[in-house]
Amino acid sequence: MTRTLGLLGSALCLLVGSACGGMHLEQRDRVTFMRGPHNYDFYSRHNDPFETSAAIHFAHAKAHDVLQLTPKGKAYYHDAAFNAESVAYTYNPPRLEPHMELYGPYTGRFLWQLYRAIDWTHVHHGETYDILSSRQIDWDRKKEWTDRQVRYYLELNDRARSPAPLDVTMRRANVMMKPYFGIFRSLYPQSTTYFYVAHWWHPAIYEAMMLGGNDEEQDEAVRETHEQTFSRVFHDRPSRMLLSREMMPRYSRLSPESANIFDNLHMIHGIAYAILAYEGWDEEQKRAEMYRVLDALGYQPGDEELARKFSLPYPDMDPRCYEGWMKGYEGEMNRIMEEMLREMWPGMSADGSSDPPPNVMHQLRLKLSPGYQPGEHPGSLHQALMKEYPQMKMDKEGMAPGKASEKMVRTMIKGWSEKYGNMPEVPPIAMTDEPSLRPAPCGPEERHHSAGRR
Amino acid sequence: MRILVITMLAVGALAMPARADVSDLEEGFPTALTDAYPKEYLGREAQLVNRFIRTDKEEDGFFFEPRLEFGFPRNAQISVAVPFRAGELEPDGLGDVRVEALYNFNQETLGVPAVSLIAGLETPTGDDSEGVDPIVGAVFSKTLGRSSLLHRLHLVGRYQFNSEEQADERDGRYEAVVGYSRRVSPQLFILFDYLREQDLKEHEETNLVEAGLRYGLSPIWVLSAGVGFGIGAESPEVQATVGLQRELLIPYSSPE
């Protein structure tokens, strides 16, 4: 039936007279959200954060077209303009949640599967916020409903993000030596850190709900955390993407699947922006590469088994405190990147040495930091490493759009298995008793203070 | 006019949170223009068209049409519409109940428009109505340029077969709409179109120029309002439409 309809569609395309030959036709295949007693409780109960989420998603949507349509030479200008526009939207947000096509219609016409993956995961964001916000779902039933939403998310859309930890999916994706890697971070530092704030905010709101419980303390924790975004975080932005396990350890214990899904989505944003900002490939090549990465960071059977394979560096963190460890280079994301380069290095070094030399690691650290740093070579990570270590061996085919070096992927997955395959799983969190909100364990320099509030 | 007022009051009373898609054009909300994109799979929506019509003979009447729309199967939607007429419009009362499906073949690309086919049935539930009339049609939508404002052109064609042709009736009638839509703000879309349609009665055609706004009141409510002016004889002098769409949040659904 579907095939017959597809043939009929192709025939109609020919009738239209457009050049259908060679075009990549795909269906929209959008799916509605899961119905339940929680629907739109985040909107109703925490409307300011809901609108901030809508503003962030505006920025995500529009970034696609800005990056695709802006010449590299104009990046310095459009970075400042786009960052300013995104911040302005965040301070004066839209009332409703946009889907990606609404502000990024150009990219949607050649990377539709990317938009399917993002929109669907934003729906998952919305619904899991709704479940935690819902007074109709008792605290001890939050996990049941969250798990139900995770199943709905994974089963109804074949572009669902993986519930496996980013450590595994990034190794599957093998993007570090691609000619676009690092381009967005280097050319668009202000926009990059806008999204780092966004990816601070999203998990911080989950964690505030986890601290507050179902009663009015949830409102208080969410309000304090949300206000801090504007009073502190935007003024002193993180310089790396924070992972769920860092920013929402309690929620990550409640639903590691959901936490990993968000990391895999947030990583997709960054990779997509780098691909779009890269000028060396045409749209067909960008699609081939983007869809390969979507598959690698997407749900694959068996990924659930790995969901709890991560550790919690700050299990007692409080999102109402904007602490030093949230801002710097050192953290889980960059640890994963450094590990991957070390695992690949024996296959890249001219003499088979097992560890990258310090100057190579130094360039990686510079490339993983937003903007051009003193001593950083321009271009992608690959270009920078070639300048530091010209004899580096490269798999040319693995650098091509839509391709990956299978050998390197196997090497990195093996590296992860050896290091973490037997690690203890992150423990579940008890949800039998609703938590009681305690005073934030941080000083005034790490915490937002609202006039007249505790 | 009373119906319009009641509708506006109802909107005010019911306004609350939603995810009805303000960019998803539907026939009647508030003009004849639709786009080639269906409702999301498993989505369900209650809709109400309220229209005031002043005919070329200066008769005033009201048309309203409650509808239920379902996103089913994937990339398709099915709607059931129950029209009513009141005032000086003839025939008044219950009109012909219509079941219509739209199937979308493709997401548009940079070169190829989105293409959908329409198939439906109009059943003789109204006074003076005979036979079940099949409907076929097609919709094309194409986004223009590089702007983020989502400038879109749409072309809609429908043909309704008259299965039991009466005296002075055609054996079928067509409807064609060409229109344009764009985003004005995050919550607001504007659209313009030109409609030409044949009446089942021989030698009668309607030509309308229409403009409308679609506004997202909340994640589940979309309010639309539009106006159309007739061109030439047999066309309504003017018509004004207020439409309401509400995403339905029941029944609860989830895989167990």
TrEMBL record, chain B:
UniProt xrefs under InterPro entries: FApF
Keywords attached to this entry: Signal
Pfam families tied to this protein: Phenol_MetA_deg (PF13557)
Extent of the signal sequence: 1-20
Entry superkingdom: Bacteria
Official protein name in the record: Transporter
Organism: Tautonia sociabilis
